[in-house]
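If your schedule permits, I should be very grateful for your opinion on a structural question. The matter concerns a single protein, recorded as an amino acid sequence and a row of backbone structure tokens. Could you please explain, in whatever detail you think fit, how the structure tokens follow from the sequence? I set the record out below, with my sincere thanks for your time.

——
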Amino acid sequence: MVETFLNDEIGTETLQIEGYKIERKDRNAINYGGGVIAYIRNSVCHQRRIDLEISSIESLWIEIKFPNTNSILIGIFYRPPSSFQSWIDSAEKEIDKASAENKEIILLGDFNINFSHINHTVVGNQKWKDCINLYGLQQIVHKPTRVTDKCATTIDHIYTTDVDHIIEVKVPSYAVSDHYPVCVTRKLNPKISKMEHLSIEYRSFKQFDKNKFIENLTNTPFYLIESIGDVDEAANYWYNLFLSTLDKHAPKKIKRVKKYPTTRVVDF
């Protein structure tokens, strides 16, 4: 979250949500406002990367670590509308240090640059576009994130170096302010030990005889359903009759199989 308006007079314990750890960076200035904060689920292994952060801008870096696969770097940013050139210079230094680690990078936050209609004639806009292109970052939010009676702009962004790892991006049309939340779901293919197995339940059609199965179904007393007045009970009765017949011709069995890498969904 950005624009937290927090300062050192507000303790982290007052912001606590059960099951989550807080990382925050308040505005380092006399001016009121700004600030960024992240809530990270306790089960997610992570490390705050203060070494990537420059104190002059409101940014927060977190390294998310997953078992048996590469970690990713997540940067959360807030750019005040009044700043531009110096902010981009500082942000580029942070991104450059992060990029040097050759890890996947995801950037999120309020950049106050309208990607719905980015003006390439404005030097600052072009400089930021050149920066993200240089480091292979792609902006993946394509719907307005701030909507007022007068305009709709896309100023809250998500950037990624690996678009193929992204499953879904959403901008829900509700908010407690004039900004909509931006949400991203990323996939992960963890490496799993070749010796690991799992058990699956399946139906064996090895001895299945289609003609005998149909004959058996024909002799099943489905007509008894007509005496059942409740629709749900009738459907359940039919289902059980059908399954009992199917079990005779294609019985359920349990088998141990190798566990291959699967896709997991992770939220941040």
In short: Residues 45 and 65 are 5 Å apart (CA to CA).
